[in-house]
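Project standup — Tuesday

K.O.: blocked on the structure for the chain from last sprint. Re-posting the sequence here as requested.
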Amino acid sequence: MFYVVFFCVLLFYFYGIRTFNYWRNRGIKNDKPLPYFGNNLKQFIQKSSMAMVATDLYKRYPEEKVVGFFRGTSPELVIRDPVIIKRILVTDFQHFYARGFNTHETVIEPLLQNLFFADGDLWRLIRQRFGQSFSTGKIKSMFSFITDGAEKLQSLANDISELDSYDIKELMARYTTDFIGACGFGINMDTLGNDSSEFRKLGKRIFQRTFRDSVAGASKYIFPDLCRYINFLAPELETSINTLVQKVMHYRNYKPCGRNDFIDIMLELKERGKISVESLNLKDSNGCPKIVEMEFTDLLITAQSFLFFGAGFETTSTTSSFTLHQLAYHPDWQLKVQNEIDRVLIKYNGKITYEAVNEMQCLEKCFYEAMRLYPAVGFLMRKCTTSSYTFPEIGLTIDKGVKVIIPIQAIHNDEKYFYEPNKFHPDRFTSSKDMKNSIFLPFGDGPRACIAARLGKLLAMAGIAAILHKFQVEPSAESKQFPEPDPMGTVSESFIGGLPIKLRRR
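H.V.: unblocked you, prediction finished:
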């Protein structure tokens, strides 16, 4: 009996280290991994976000172009070289078109069948149908929602200015959630007027990691086949989003009603019938891509709505609030931005319009610099989708399924690419030439770059302009010039304790 138990324990141990020679055999440096957990224990137990893990590796191997990593027992590769980054995201995109967040090839939970998480033909089908959904014309037609939200934001900020300190991250999250309610679902979510709004609670829950979420995530990465039917997302999230979207569509009789909001756009896409594209991974007998088709179902509409709701409010509120936080600590730049806002808004009768925001170049520079210092999405991930791939710059060959990590946050703060990287220097972005290719990547790059980047930027800038037109932002007694990143961040990053500042009427 003893020998049987000993043999089972030994077998279990060796199964948990079976892949750990992968990088050593290829001459790639990596930290010593732990059985089953690999190098990802801190992220699994919520002591470090994935962006923090990638940044740490980036800094500890300054002479390497790539660094090996194990998420559980799966080998991954942290990319430190901009030339290789461009190859992955743009030049050789056909070899890395998958993000790789889903741990199983075929079993994908319903809400993750969206444009951000989907891979392969599902991604291509959704992307093809969404191509024009965030065009200049569509954004202009949505901008009245932003203008209304900016005015409500000013009204609430007036009340908050009576307080000695307030979390600007929470204020901007309420502003962006209100916009998403109106522009996405045609609903008055009243998160600006009600800080206990059900929709604000739902938004918080999407990015809150509970013990259940942590265990589910770790289990799916360590035992992807065994745990393929366990969902990353908590059941109550799926129920809440499903209920919300079904109510809105039922009210509209499942047809577009002319509101020109996100649900309307998707119902229009559904009415067009089947989507068809050339397959990314299926070939006919002649080696040519097969044509694949898909119905744009209610399930897919719900999944895209989940993405619009979650990603829309979190990334925009983080970036806009961090920009205001930086301006609170740099009053010289705050004055420049306020002077510009005042000058521009005179031309538009004090209204924050699409044209007005596009004229605010000084504000745009500050916005980009805040995204450089602390990008809301701190890392990118891609998965090798061909049988093998060789990086010509280093002669390294990886196998199909190996994921690569691009540590955006670390690159943005590397003095090799940005002079005095820890300082707030908006003049880095004086012209388009300063948008460093494959180095400044707040919205990603290539075919899988953020499709709603322009809408997100304009929403954030409008919110910042609304605040600074009427108020000054200053550090409060609770403020920290260098706020502490939240180790429980998932895809999007945040801060421990938020971003408390003081609003003062101008």
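K.O.: great, moving the ticket to review. The longest helix spans residues 298-329. Residues 104 and 225 are 7 Å apart (CA to CA).
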